[in-house]
Specification:
By secondary structure, this protein is mostly helical. It has one domain: YgfB uncharacterised protein family PF03695 (Four Helix Bundle (Hemerythrin (Met), subunit A)). 61% of the residues lie in helices and 5% in strands. The protein has a two-stranded antiparallel ribbon. InterPro entries: YgfB-like, YgfB-like_sf. Pfam families: UPF0149.
Length: 191
């Protein structure tokens, strides 16, 4: 791998910066950032770096950074993380792991996928993905189940078994969607 993944301190720092400068329209944490970057990398077209950063902050308004070093470090870490995701998706799909959140409930650690899925769907919306072939729509639906507010009722009515299955479906869905759009891009089907 080229730059490699972010270390725990870098992830915590990014999370803190997203919280510090976050708004109602921005990415709220590293899990959502990871989902957003995965969708951007997986989509039908290449996204410019400036568009990526606008998507992180929810529009054209950037934070008022404390100093130039903070801005520079943030940008470097975001694009290092993006490059790591890109490399895993393209070269090492077995090592691709969505960066889901966790929480402790009743002395058990539970996986929280909503922020990642919300970020992914934000990336889909950013790029205005064209319609998928019918056989791939369930893959996007697996992510959208946890990533779109309009699916909340369906999500809340899942049995515990169906809930666990829905979480297990996210990673393979992301890999399948990446594979499809990447083959379309490299095959010249999309412009």
């Amino acid at each position: 791998m080229t730059q490699g993944p972010l270390n725990e301190d870098e992830i915590i720092w990014l999370d803190d910066v997203l919280l510090k400068y976050g708004t109602a329209h921005s990415v709220i944490d590293v899990a959502e950032l990871d989902g957003l970057l995965t969708a951007i990398l997986s989509g039908p077209k290449v996204t410019e770096p400036a568009t990526v950063l606008r998507a992180v902050w929810g529009g054209d308004v950037e934070p008022e950074w404390e100093n130039e070093e903070e801005l520079t470090r943030f940008n470097i870490l975001v694009f290092q993380h993006m490059n790591d995701i890109a490399e895993r998706l393209a070269e090492y799909p077995g090592q691709f792991e969505p960066l889901f959140g966790t929480s402790e409930v009743d002395n058990r650690e539970i996986t929280i996928v909503e922020e990642w899925c919300y970020g992914y769907m934000r990336g889909v919306s950013l790029e205005s993905w064209p319609a998928l072939p019918a056989e791939l729509q369930p893959e996007l639906d697996a992510i959208a189940l946890h990533g779109l507010e309009e699916n909340e009722t369906e999500f809340e009515n899942l049995t515990p078994e169906a809930f666990l299955a829905s979480i297990e479906a996210i990673k393979p869905a992301a890999l399948a969607l990446y594979g499809y759009w990447h083959s379309q891009r490299s095959g010249g089907a999309l412009h």
